[in-house]
Amino acid sequence: MVDNISHWASDEIKVIHVSEGYTRTPVELRVRQFCPQEGDKLTRSWVANGSKKSVDIPLTRSNGWIGANILLAYFHYCNKGIYPFSNDCKEQDLRTLAELDESAIRFVKETRSFASDHKRQWQRLHQEGLFEDDYFFLSQLFTENWEPRSTV
What we know:
- InterPro entries: Fungal_sec-metab_reg_TF.
- By secondary structure, this protein is of the alpha+beta class.
- It contains 4 helices and 4 strands; from the N terminus they run ββββαααα.
């Protein structure tokens, strides 16, 4: 159930483009920071290796960041332990398991190379908790055994 939000924490609207991989057209989402209302869920939980885990969602996190974690969880769930951007994932796996064509395989390889080139920079973002950096969430697409990160 979606509630109309009447009290916003910020007037700034950010636009994010989300592409899951089944279509070439990304979905455009307009997001902005909101003030939680009574009854809003302020924790996220999941099951990993048979045990339930959860993380608090700080009141300062924008709904765009919440959405980023949801999309990351969905991405990692859909890959079911296969890491398409790792060097361990072979071209044949991409072709058969993900049913990618040559253009999509080339994109995965270029993205893999980009991630490798920026790995140290992204590790610093995570260590220093620089969650407002554009790559804080994007870089988590390349994290094996991913779990949501708290921004507190």
